[in-house]
Amino acid sequence: PPFARxxxxxxxxxxxxxxxxxxxxxxxxxxxxxxxxxxxxxxVLGELEKKFASAKAILFTHSxxxxxxxxxxxxxxxxxxxxxxxxxxxxxxxxALGKANIGTDGIDIAATRGTIxxxxxxxxxxxxxxxxxxxAKIKENETFKLFGGVYEKKPATLADIALLAKASTKNDLxxxxxxxxxxxxxxxxxxxxxxxxxxxxxx
Length: 203
Description:
It is a single chain. The chain is 59% helix and 14% strand. It is built from 8 helices and 5 strands, in the order H-H-E-H-E-H-E-H-E-E-H-H-H. Helix 2 packs across helix 4 and helix 5 crosses helix 6. The protein is globular, with a radius of gyration of 25 Å.
């Protein structure tokens, strides 16, 4: 048939393209998980150190099997609070925190399993905390956990983080405190005493 040869050429071309695709795929698979080069590692460390040093808050999470789409939604939500969310290796995270003089007492990053994620808040740290806490409460995200945080370079307990997560924004938190200050002195004294009693019981 007159069109038999062109079909044959097309078939040969497809074989060549498919072979090339398999070679590229094999190369990419081979390089997945390979250590970062010294140059790339230095660049990543430099960027993290700079961001950590200027951050209002740094929140640590770990997770397993969270879909790419879900993580994209989380990043979009955090962006509204001027917060960047990055996935980073434990070794690089520890070095970057040290270089930025960020204390992490009580936060055991080395023993944490799963994918480590870091939310770096340069805006409203309370809104960032709440966003992460709400994301963790969704059933499909049950493997996503918030396991520590640093606010203004000071480590926070999980109890502290849980309290901050109950406020919508930092402005809401400040407004609540101002209402307490405008309340009768007896109520203010009672609130301060309750906080002191709680700390004494915990300590």
